[in-house]
Amino acid sequence: MKKIMRLYIYDLQRGFSEAKWRLLGACFILSAALVSICSRSMVNSPSEPLSAVSIVMGICEGNMPVVFGLDHVLVLPVTWIVVQLAVVFSVISYPVRARERDGNGIVIRTSRISWWASKCLWVFTVVSILWIVLLGFCVAVGIINGSGVFEVSYNHLLYYDDYLIINSNYSTRELILDILVCYMSSLALCMLCTALSLFVDAPYVLGGAVTYLLVSVFFENPLLFPQYGMFARSRQFDDFALCPELELAICLGVMVSAVLLGLMRVRRMQWLASYSR
Fold this sequence. Notes:
By secondary structure, the protein is mainly α. The protein is built from 10 helices and 2 strands, in the order αααααααββααα. The protein has one domain. The C terminus is likely disordered.
């Protein structure tokens, strides 16, 4: 455990130093998404201020499942996709770059398991910080607007094909659970992409993440776990959605699988002082 913590502290220092521009870019994208939601709210309902939860729901709104064969106009959830990719892009390249930089030195002094555990903790930390920043922005705007944090307002309503979908019994506990699911699905995607980056180059993994997110937009399937990060696919707005507790369990299962997949790859890698794939 001491070896893991020493490596983790080292990764925090080197990781944030190397990824500072990516992290600043991600924060800029998160703030731009917030401004986009606020602007849309001012057009749709200028007299009603946004609450913090309203903004989170707008950013993580997503879209309802596409029903093929019907007269359905798909509105691509650009904000949701861009936010997901911004978080993935912030973490995806550091583990491989750390391996190329450190080579055998770190592993000889510690172990392969410690090295990979430290990288997983680093990904968890970065994703958590980005989500804390996002929620902090939303809470700050909600307080400035004077509309509070958990107030359900008109701007919580989601529009699809001119139909209004709302659950008036949306409790605070359910809101917190759905926000937690959004965070966990984002973390699971980042863990999976980080593990896959040990097998193929980061640009290919990022391209795969884009494809996976787009497939999640068009289809509804339990294997497409990014869809759990959409409020429109939650139990409050989709009668066929899984309960949030089960969604959390699936996301946790994906994270555990990603950690084990990465560990399997790390244990079979040939560690060289200077590495290129």
